[in-house]
Amino acid sequence: MTPDFSRVPDNRPVRAVLVGCGGMSAAWLKVAATMDGLEVVGLVDLHGEAAQARQAEFGLLHAQTGTDLDAMLAATRPDVVFDCTVPEAHHATALTAFARGVGVLGEKPLADTLERAQEMVQAGQDAGVYHAVVQNRRYDPNIRRVRQFVESGRLGDLTALHADFFIGAHFGGFRDAMQHVLLLDMAIHTFDAARLICGQDPVRVHCHEWNPAGSWYAHGANAVAVFEMTGGVVFTYRGSWCAEGFPTTWESEWRVIGTQGTVRWDGGDHPRAALVTGTGGFHSTFEELELPAAAPDARTGGHEGLIRDAVRALRTGNAPETIASDNIKSLAMVLAAIRSAETGQAVDVTW
């Protein structure tokens, strides 16, 4: 059954409390500052001075600041929490909000473990509130062009997706010491993109992970994974956080293969297709074309698009595309790939 969220009337703005005033919060607050019908009424951080700094930076003079989310929710009675905390805090943040009957739009990943994600999804459903995840790369206009073309049927029956992600990223800081740094920190974007493009869910994965010579990371900077999907599509992923030279885009490089042709997308602005026009020779003949522009009503705009969708959903009651009960499948892909890498065996993807 499609959930129907509590609705915010048109005669007042959607009221939001943002929790976690670190670096990522700036992207959210920049969007909020330009969006009609949205009001940030509170800023929360474990370090009160961080919340006060964001309040001053964005001129949020009427927003309250504090260090206790539950107290802030009681004081401001918002419609939604914008969760910009670290993944380990997503579970506690969401459950605190749900207990107050407040919805949540949170940064990826949904949670740091599958068990916590499952508990969050159930708690949000029990509370009957909005609960969605920011998968901002879904809101790229070019991935919408790819998805739209696949949906058109012009590729025939989809058979395989192949994604390459190779970037030598010298972050410094916490990532240098992370376990499973590529899979845990970045791969969810590509895995979620694969689900969007093919419209299928993960079934099983075999993943090999390693830390190559010359890596400046402590663990797992490289990975190769093969996923079986529900409709018979095979999705392969090759990735590296420490590949020096010829970097891919952050959106990865893609081949999407069907029975009637292939789409190639380098993650940039010019996805192209080669469609079969004739058969019978050693090679078929093909027509090459650039993919049509995204439809005017396509979900685009990165963080801005997702926040706009949240405001719309809170007014209309319609479910967002990145609703937590669906996005948990992308998190499950990451965690199953890690289990496979640790055991050396193919494992089922469950959520």
Structural features, described:
The protein is an alpha/beta fold and 351 residues long. The protein folds into two domains: 144 residues, Rossmann fold (3-Layer(aba) Sandwich), CATH 3.40.50; 174 residues, 2-Layer Sandwich (Dihydrodipicolinate Reductase, domain 2). The strands form two sheets. Strands 14-13-12-11-7-10-9-8-15 form a nine-stranded mixed beta sheet, covered by helices on one side. The protein has a six-stranded parallel beta sheet with strand order 3-2-1-4-5-6, sandwiched between helices. The radius of gyration is 21 Å and the shape is globular. One of its GO terms (molecular function) is nucleotide binding. InterPro entries: Gfo/Idh/MocA-like_OxRdtase_N, Gfo/Idh/MocA_oxidoreduct, GFO_IDH_MocA-like_dom, NAD(P)-bd_dom_sf. Pfam families: GFO_IDH_MocA, GFO_IDH_MocA_C3.
The name of the CATH architecture of the largest domain is: 2-Layer Sandwich
The proportion of residues in beta strands is 25-35%
Q: What would you report as the Rg, rounded to the nearest angstrom?
A: 21 Å
Average pLDDT confidence is 95
Major sheet details: 9 strands, mixed
Distance between the termini: 18 Å
**Which series of helices and strands comes N to C?**
EHEHEHEHEHEHEHHEEEEEEEHHE
By CATH's scheme, which homologous superfamily of the largest domain applies?
Answer: Dihydrodipicolinate Reductase, domain 2
Strand order of the largest sheet: 14-13-12-11-7-10-9-8-15
Domain GFO/IDH/MocA-like oxidoreductase: 143-264
Domain Gfo/Idh/MocA-like oxidoreductase N-terminal: 15-130
GO molecular function: nucleotide binding
Protein name: Oxidoreductase
